[in-house]
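Lesson 9: reading folded outputs for more than one chain in a single document. The general rule is that every protein is listed as its sequence immediately followed by its structure tokens, and records are never interleaved. Here is the first one.
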Amino acid sequence: MSSSPPAPRGALDGIPAYVPKPPQPPSEGPSYRLFLNENPYPPLPSVRDAVLAASAGSNHYPEIFPTRLAGALAAKYDVPLSHVVTGPGSVGIYQQIGQAFLEPGDDVVYAWPSFEAYPIMTRMAGARPVEVRLRDHTHDLDALAAAITPRTRAVLLCEPNNPTGTAVGAKALEAFLDRVPGDVLVVLDEAYVEFSRSEDAVDGVALHRERPNLITLRTFSKAYGLAAWRVGYGFADPAVAEALRKCAVPCGVGRVAEEAALFSLTVEDELLARVEEIAKERDRLRDRLLAQGWPVVPSDTNFLWLPLGDGADAFAHALEAHGVLTRSFPGDGVRVTVGGREADDLLVSVTAGLAREQDADSS
């Protein structure tokens, strides 16, 4: 009898295992999580009440497919129910995409740095990641189009982009989509669409109506503040949507999560007022950091990108020592989620000290 366990698929060799690393607390004072792009506001009291009421039925399985939520989304966006897909967060839908459309030997094209799930989903399906570097912290659409070959099965676009917060805009995106062959799947991830204030903002729901190869994804995790409940949704051609539903985990959106999302849609005005406050705080925070001399890219999201290159890790570690936890992309930059005023003021105070240290070192 062999003493070795069964070997996992070779495709998993390039996928990092998730090992939680507890952040080091500061020597004194509070600690703020500005590294996960979370909404700084808790759910509205009315949403919490709806969740509490729904939890009384937690002994029952939810529906295999969250029909009530799908119906509400179809009505809100004026699309047929057959176009709606759901999953436990948009990441859950990405897994459905990998199972439904990718095979070993396929190429998947995406910008980099971008959403960190892209290389994981691609490799899990046995496909080959084709990463195209950003240009000026933004999707290089010409380079992405040039990377598409007969081997390309899918193109993944994060608009606005995570982690840089930049957007290409509707006109440029539509011109790019016109260059993508019809048999190549395009996934348009609009997780941060509610935070954009651009007049040229993309409307992926409208775009999917005329483009059968386009999947548009959105989420309740960011603007709606329901990250813990894991509710993602999207819109696709009925044939594509049906394939995704076949690969969905049964009951993937739980009963309580569905109720939280449903009720959030009924109080959307209150929630979007919070989004407006986050957008204002984002711009205030950027102005403060720019005044200190830090490079900060304009953002259409609920976070800021500081392109610090090789200094990214040192910057992030210095903030962490003071209780401000950010996300470093070594060699590229640091992503800072917009938090509450107290967290952001602490961030600004620490970065002011770091800027003074840099000035002293260079003098």
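And here is the second record, again sequence then tokens.
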Amino acid sequence: MPTPDPAGDLVPDLTAVVPAGGSGTRLWPLSRAASPKFLHDLTGSGRSLLQDTVERLRPLVGDRVLVVTGTRHADAVREQLPDLLPANLLVEPGPRDSMPAIGLAAAVLERRDPEAVLGSFAADHVIEQPEVFRERVHQAVRAAREGLLVTLGITPTRPATGFGYVRVGRALGVTGAPQVRHAEAFVEKPDAALAAEYVSSGTYLWNAGMFVVRAGTLLELLATRHPRMVQTLRRVAEDPSAIEELWGSLPRISIDHAVAEPAAAAGRVAVVPAPFGWDDVGDFSSLADLLPESAEHPGLRVLGPGHLVVDEGSTGLVAPRGGRTVVTLGLQDVVVVDTPDAVLVTTRQHCQDVKGLVETLRRTGREELT
């Protein structure tokens, strides 16, 4: 187990749960169903997003990291995380959305330690200022010990329409956690005008899907509306060999819809404002914002070998991943992603539409590319 840092970050009753699923279709053709974005280095750090996530959590939890992933990605996760304890890789036979995945981890943790606190953090997000992140997780854990479901709400930097929001209420006065506040409601993705209103009000935070809660509390909250799911998850935790038989009976539902929204309405949810840099790397436009401008190619962000790019007068993002030279000439806000079997050429303005393009490929019989 890693030695805690001098600030005493290690939290003895906290286990990190890392759901590693999805296919990141807006980052096609880099991200594919068989090799989703969390397995890729998208920031130039030399580590995948999954590896960065686990390294960020190590000072808080040591080796108490549970990764939940699908069957087709389990070997890649093991390869990328060789220090992960074998019992801490939970493999889903098929995708059922975030609630079954996080719920299974909660049921496993509950059996190991009835007082265990879990912190759920996606495998494919980028977080800056890790020391601020750890301090806010500490506050969230203190509130979770009081029986609350706690979310880390990201301070908005723009009126984004691609994220859900949390409406922030009164301070809760949790000892040692001065920033913990009542979460009045979770709000769906707004339109542009409503998003601007949310941000200007100062009472809304982005919902980044980061939750801290006692494992038993999460299952208790889930059981209020989905008792059969809790029964099934506990059966699988007791007998892992039953997962193949039982997993398909679980509904496809997110943790937001299954637990967070109804629990907020019942006054059981707290929010910790999280003033650190955060990005879910949702598309190539957001990825371009994360990458530095190329010293060799001013105006361009380059993800991959810079010597494969030849440019004159262009701006945007180029990802030369196919081993070929990519030439751009006089294009503004261009996005070029070159892989061995597919090339994407679009603009930053249309990056959100890439998901629909992937659906078109599937519909037209080109599933081998997705």
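What the second record shows: The domain at 14-279 is CATH 3.90.550.10 (Spore Coat Polysaccharide Biosynthesis Protein SpsA; Chain A).
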